[in-house]
Amino acid sequence: MLYRFINAEDERFEAPRPYVFTTSYLPLTDKNGGLFSAITPFLSGDIKNDNDTFLTHPASVEDLKLNYLDRRDFILLADGRVFRLSEPSDEDSLQSGFFYQEIKKRYKKAFTVDVLNFIPQDLPAEIMQITVTNTRPKPLSLQGFSLMYVYARSAENLRDHRHVTSLLQRTAAHTYGLTYKPTMVFNEKGHRLNTTQYFVLGTLKHGKKTVAPCCKIADLDYVTAQAAGFHDTKNIAKQVLGTKGNRIKQGVENAAVLVFPSVTLRPNSSITITLAYGIGSSDKRSVIRSAAKIVGSCGEVPEMVRKTRRYWRGVSGRVHFQLGTRMQNQWIQWVGLQPLLRKLFGCSFLPHFDYGKGGRGWRDLWQDALTLLLIEPEATKDMIVNNFKGIRIDGSNATIITRDGSFKSDRNNISRVWMDHGVWPYMTLKLYFHQTGDWEVFLKKTGYYRDHQLKRSQEVDYTFRGNNVLSDHAGNPHEGTILEHILVQILVQFYNVGQHNIIRLENADWNDGLDMAGQNGESVAFSCMYASHLKDIADLLASLPVESFELTEELLLLLDTLEHPVDYASVQEKLGRLQRYFEATKTAVSGKKITLEKGRLLHDLRKKADWMYAHIRAQEWNNELSLFNGYYDNAGMPVDGKKGKRTHVTLTGQVFPIMSGITGSDKIAAQFTAIRKYLFDKKVQGFRLNTDFKELQLDLGRGFSFIYGDKENGAFFSHMNVMLAFALYSRGYAQYGSFVLQSIMNMSLSERAGMYPNLPEYFDSKGTGKYAYLTGSASWFIYTMLQQVFGVRGQNGDLLLEPKLTAEEFKEQDTLSVSCSFAGKRITVVYTNEKKISFPRYSPELISVNGLPVPADSYIRDAHHIVIKRETLLGLCTKPENELQIRLL
Questions:
Q1: Which pTM does this prediction carry?
Q2: Structural domains in the chain?
Q3: Could you tell me if 176 and 295 are in contact, meaning their C-beta atoms sit under 8 angstroms apart?
Q4: Per residue in 683-700, pLDDT tens?
């Protein structure tokens, strides 16, 4: 076993052979994302707070095991022998939890060392505490020093002016260590005065005495002068320990060498070295001051670890499951924190995500908000409302949202659009509405994004110098309701079709690897979701207590049934109408508003939805294979189906027809049987993203250039697997959905996954987990478990309980439960299934709330669900923690 959970209750785990985790790491951060770290058993992994401020050498996943430059190292000299803490000892073990790492090292006939690393939840500084204990029966002479390369600049400077930026470095001695402050931020786009200050501080505590370093060295060349390299431990120790006084040179590659005085340890006595690493600013020194206070006192660290762990456990516990097995219960605690980690980190700043430059992607942010709404709903509403400002009037959107809530067209300044981006905002807003009943959010007004991209990037406005806000022709900022923003994204796509009358693939959809069919590619998969949204929005609006809606006048062009109908079967008519709309809104809008009767709007949306449903079902269903064609490539050819002796199948192409309802109820069983036949790998026990196409697909995308079984070419993508489970559960096929979710949990908990507990982005063909922590699959997993498996969700603001649990999940016990927040109340829903009946053969009955019987007339019950009115729930749930007992009969 690579690791085991320490007890039956919490998230802590231990690994007796930590160095087998050659590419696994633990993320560390504070609650506000002020500092980001990754750390491994080798003490490798970088420390930074954004792409332009790395304290240590930026580390990709391969650097973790090969590179000494990104290690928080410490070297000990004991009775003439040299020991390096980043390397294995005679006996090592690892313990980890939310969010700390502790390495226990034992050197036979010498001493033991405990190495603890964490970032306090309320301070953006990484703390490292090293405790050395003499375990032999005679005194031990000991001296030690920190050894870390301090990079102190932007990740871009790895290849962009690496030497020149080293000349900017300025180092100063601090009472407890060293501070580093480059004179300027330097790149070809412009230079500016630097205000960022990096620091490495430390103290040694021996008995009651705490001492600062006796020597501070900040010149990397000097440290390695007698060594073959940074890995030459003995010669580095000789050079460092032979130095008298501080050695600080300016304008060089930096080191952080804090040399502590020699001590003699009596048997069973200890010393403690406390180090602090971080990034502050010259005008706001509070971080450095706070870090100095910690290293100066030493004794605060154990309590800080406990407080930090309590904080993260509290966040994880906002949605807390009691599942069938202990391992699953504890594993899912880690998964529950992943959406919040991605909110803080974005898709960057961990070693597997070495391509990232910061900021959160559009699709990622909306999907993460699904779970964030469940664990921190108050904070999430404002974020959701703000994000609608990123939508352009042409239905596309800015793709990056920064930490301060502003928008960027594209991380790499490329003019491009993803065709699926219009799908996600409505899904998230719909969840918010059902959880809260706040229908007025649809009528809230906000602006539109405007930049150099026009007509879904068909044109570029090279003269644009605006403020990224759409204006009317008079130059006034233009606003529309949030409902209008949703309609713009979906209605534009209804008309934006290719030769098969399916929505164009453009620069890719959810699968970023499908990026080479920009001219003629079409996505059947996401056409299903747009069709579903048209239908669903109409149904939702019908329930709102309003009779009309205010819309921007130009939207009449897209609501064609109101004045000038379009023949939906005609690709040319659709594209012609779309171009008229693009021209009318190209750089500005008239600013005029219309008031539209609700019934007329619903009629238009439903007519479009009905046409799309019928068209996709008739054209894309392959009756022989019981599968849908999911795509058309750039040659206009269908992607899924028979290709000579091979059969090509994409998982995405099957998931969204099921989720959207395009797959008829009478066909789901046959379709899932086909999915298992073509995409389920019996060896790894998971569903692949696609079958092996055997050759490059230059008319479809880069993904097929990868080796089959990795990344977008046939890997076990957790995200799409969870979406498959969600789709099956949402259509009532709990046995199939449970099979898929169980396969994901089994892969994650398997020893061959080779990683700490989390749900990775995907697994390769060997079942090894890749891209840990920062993945939208975690959000979808928690969302699926809570709202579909346990069936705890909102319905127009009321509480709906519709569990879809199987007999297998009750195998070990009669009860399963979930704790979460609803309507501002903490509730624990406990399901008892003594007869171990599977959905849909049981009916739920509400027995009690907080131990008190509930009158049958106080809630609505049918064969499969219970609805408790919001007002009734608030009256019943009067305690800080409230328990609802449900019997499944």
A1: 0.95
A2: 12-316 (2.70.98.40), 361-619 (no CATH), 790-888 (2.60.420.10)
A3: yes
A4: 999 999 999 999 999 999
